[in-house]
Specification:
By secondary structure, the protein is mostly beta strands. It has helices at 2-15, 390-399, 404-411, and strands at 20-21, 25-28, 46-53, 67-71, 74-79, 82-87, 92-96, 109-114, 121-125, 132-137, 143-149, 155-163, 167-174, 182-187, 193-198, 208-216, 222-231, 237-241, 244-248, 254-258, 264-270, 294-295, 301-302, 306-312, 321-325, 332-336, 338-344, 350-352, 377-378, 383-388, 420-426. It has a 6-stranded mixed β-sheet, with no helix packed on it. The protein starts with a helix and ends with a strand.
């Protein structure tokens, strides 16, 4: 009988060597690809791309740092907790701004949701000192109803996402060691608790938040220094994918998934190899330095065939990029070591994305010869969005010959016009 047990264990062990083992757990092999990279064409991951020039008028003007979402044949552009809504051709529809302290208004936005199939807008409003709430608005921005979310002791509510149109998942920021057993709560439509999502294992040094601050030296240069640490476990970042929700947790190498039956299982795991941070000494770990690699949890794009991920390669970055900031009298150049990556869910191939153009990240736009495309958001039907300022499009067109509607957009474009939104249909 002893030999039977040994034989059975060998079968189980051999079955776990495949990158797609039991339970369909996919291994993202980062370790074998550090120091490598490729320029990937957009046509490899998308069937087409469309450029939309957003209407420019006094009411539709879009401010700095816009983020665009596509859903229900509409384009939603968010800046400073205000949404401007356009149709698929760029025609301005209305401005959504319900900031305030009234019962139909919001003041501390956790996140916006654009519901597929209804055009309704849902706003998650933080309730500091009181219950948080969800506010529902119709497709014209008119208030429908609100729902309060129960408070949890020793936990800070961060974000709400809707699962299967009937359940709500609330992510939690853990600020107390006694409350560190779970990091999200699932509620039914009446906000009764139906499940608590367990916090995955994190070593003690990953349960600390390290603060850093900028120090300006006498010569005018700026360096980042460590400013101490405190106990804190970051809330999971949550993303919808079909009838599932993906969970990304800082310091953990696994992407978890919850389905409509509330089964919570690992979906993907990152093989960091020797690049995993296993040091409890956090003093020298900053955004661009430290002998390890980490995955950025605030960025995640998933389509039927691909994941687009973001990693901070730090000292192992083979292709850094720079951004020039002009908000001060003297322009300041800042170097970054973050790199985007592509994972093919069908083949298991992992690729670090090289820059198609120096200091421009993303995919080479080989469909209509536009600027590099880096998706910022993705819709329920896998339309991914990126936003370009008018100046970016004008400058790029001076050196490159655009095709299709992008070529027509460039002809009458002024640098004071509203941004252009690119929408790619991902595979």
């Amino acid at each position: 009988m002893r030999y039977f047990y040994i034989f059975l264990i060998c079968i189980i062990a051999s079955g776990c060597k495949n990158s797609k083992s039991a339970g369909n757990l996919n291994t993202i092999d980062l370790a074998s690809n550090v120091g490598k990279g490729e320029v990937v064409n957009l046509s490899e991951v998308a069937n087409d791309i469309r450029y939309v020039k957003l209407e420019t008028n006094e009411s539709s003007l879009i401010g700095r740092f816009p983020k665009a979402y596509y859903e229900n044949e509409r384009i939603y552009v968010i800046t400073a907790q205000v949404i401007r809504v356009f149709d698929i051709n760029g025609k301005f529809l209305f401005k959504f701004d319900r900031r305030g302290r009234g019962p139909e208004e919001y003041i501390n936005v956790g996140n916006f949701l654009f519901l597929p199939g209804t055009d309704n807008i849902v706003v998650y409003n933080h309730g500091f000192g009181s219950n948080s709430k969800l506010l529902y608005y119709d497709n014209n921005g008119m208030f429908i109803r609100s729902k309060e979310i129960p408070r949890s002791a020793n936990l800070s509510s961060e974000k709400v996402i809707i699962l299967n149109n009937s359940m709500y998942i609330n992510s939690l920021h853990l600020l107390n060691r006694d409350s560190a057993t779970y990091n999200a709560i699932v509620y039914d439509s009446c906000f009764n608790v139906v499940k608590r999502v367990p916090t995955p294992y994190l070593p003690e040094y990953e349960r600390k938040t390290v603060m850093s601050m900028a120090k300006r030296d006498y010569d005018g240069s700026v360096t980042m220094i460590n400013a101490g640490s405190y106990f804190s476990i970051h809330p999971p970042q949550m993303y919808n994918f079909n009838d599932k929700v993906r969970f990304l947790i800082n310091g953990n190498d696994t992407i978890f998934s919850m389905d409509s039956k509330l089964n919570y299982t690992p979906a993907f795991t990152v093989n960091y190899g020797k690049y995993k941070n296993q040091s409890s000494n956090r003093e020298k770990i900053l955004s661009t330095s430290g002998g390890h690699i980490s995955m950025g949890t605030s960025y995640f794009i998933e389509s039927e065939e691909y994941l687009v991920l973001k990693f901070n390669l730090r000292e192992y970055c083979h292709e850094t990029h720079e951004i020039i900031y002009t908000i001060t009298k003297e322009p300041r150049v800042v170097k970054y070591t973050d790199t985007y990556a592509l994972f093919n869910k069908k083949t298991g191939k992992f690729t670090l994305l090289n820059q198609p153009v120096k200091n421009m990240l993303g995919f080479r736009e080989d469909i209509k010869n536009g600027p590099p495309f880096l998706p910022a958001t993705i819709s329920s039907d896998f339309r991914a969005c990126a936003v370009y300022t008018a100046s970016q499009i004008i400058d790029y067109a001076k050196k490159n010959e655009a095709k299709g509607e992008l070529k027509e957009i460039v002809k009458g474009l002024r640098d004071t016009d509203n941004p252009i939104v690119a929408i790619a249909r991902m595979k």
